[in-house]
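Hey all, sorry for the wall of text incoming. These are the two entities for the joint prediction.
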Amino acid sequence: MAAVLGTGARAEETEQEKQDVQEKETVTPERAEEAKLKAKYPNLGQKPGGSDFLMKRLQKGQKYFDSGDYNMAKAKMKNKQLPSAGPDKNLVTGDHIPTPQDLPQRKSSLVTSKLAG
Amino acid sequence: SLAGFGNLMQDVLWCFSQVKGTIDIGVTEADIISTVEFNHTGELLATGDKGGRVVIFQREQESKNQPHRRGEYNVYSTFQSHEPEFDYLKSLEIEEKINKIRWLPQQNAAYFLLSTNDKTVKLWKVSERDKRPEGYNLKDEDGRLRDPSMITTLRVPVLRPMDLMVEATPRRVFANAHTYHINSISVNSDYETYMSADDLRINLWNFEITNQSFNIVDIKPANMEELTEVITAAEFHPHHCNTFVYSSSKGTIRLCDMRTSALCDRHAKFFEEPEDPSNRSFFSEIISSISDVKFSHSGRYIMTRDYLTVKVWDLNMENRPIETYQVHDYLRSKLCSLYENDCIFDKFECVWNGSDSVIMTGSYNNFFRMFDRNTKRDVTLEASRENSKPRAILKPRKVCVGGKRRKDEISVDSLDFSKKILHTAWHPSENIIAVAATNNLYIFQDKVN
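and here's what came out:
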């Protein structure tokens, strides 16, 4: 904050103190929540609410499968079980190679809606 | 005055009327209601769910014998609209969830509606059959063919009454036109065309033609790394068939005029509220993303819903909304946990009443909010089985933000964020509302004297 001409240094100091106190008292709830989030996840993306979310939104439903990986993993682990999907079968991560047994059944709901019951 | 009781909005007292669906301890995902829509007369009420099913309710004729019961809604037709699919070429799983249902105005005895999932729009015809032909010559009543050599006389088949049967048939399937996920469909006031909008593009269709559509908006950047916003909702103007609006994830609304060019990438109007830079945070853009946009019935205003507010804009003023209503501002100090549990991405819808004087939107804990634009009064109501005695008046609810909690208030930390009211509908001319609470559909009406 620029010092008004003619104002003594003492007055300027007081102004600055006041501003500091004000800033500490009036941190918006949003900023406080942001600080909480950044404390939990220090590596959170630099772009606020940016294209990471958008890309995730656009890729909804995308499944990944590499037949090369799949067949090599099968060959390597001839006698062992392939690592199977965790509780969330829709999420494929790490060493998990999707197998036909893992895929959620693509059934259609032939059951009538309960709203019509 | 009714202190602390009664919802004093133009003297409307809301009462429980009906609830559809079952009380389950665990909700089956397929039963979650994903869209609710009255038709243009309010005679029919359609719901779509995550399982791809549509259920249509019809209002019963009011009976002179029971003047206290205004017409109830009972099941009229139900059908499987969409099935789960897998696009092998793109390795993409396509949900059967019905994102939107939109009715066409009635032009003959049959009813028509559009239903859409993420990729495919379908036109359904719902029609009644209450007569059937009897007395064929070449087949008997079971449909088995008769031996022609045994037929000695001829008769004329006649139409005989039968039990009412309501059939739903898919008349058109509009497929393969969307690379991204469809969020909106809107029937044009010309009744000949409609639009479908996905994250990056909007297409215009003619109801008669399924193998072609016109792309009218394309915001896909040449380089996807430059993507900064997506289309979140779109709607045609209720009277001007050349005009439509679409909203974005950055909190802006664009109004386009199809007469200016074939591709409406340049807007005719751009609605955006200036942001206070001192308020900017990590959450700002996420909570400003518009989840729904609706024209008023008059066509003079648009209403938008973002995470914490509902705004009303005058079409003639682009630089700020004319009204802003706080839906649940107390959530501002919960944004960190709402981000962690993904609730901050919940897409709430909003609706106008028939006269554009009251607006309604949902919240958490099965609460929903109404704002009277004239009196500036607002009310919070709850859709719950506890208030489901016939004609029971709904008691206003209040969330306690801090300090001492009164007896019938609920504190922010006690709110159930899994009970979200995302979809509601308001009868076109009467005070009858439909509120979807996860897998249950509540119907409320104003008190009949």
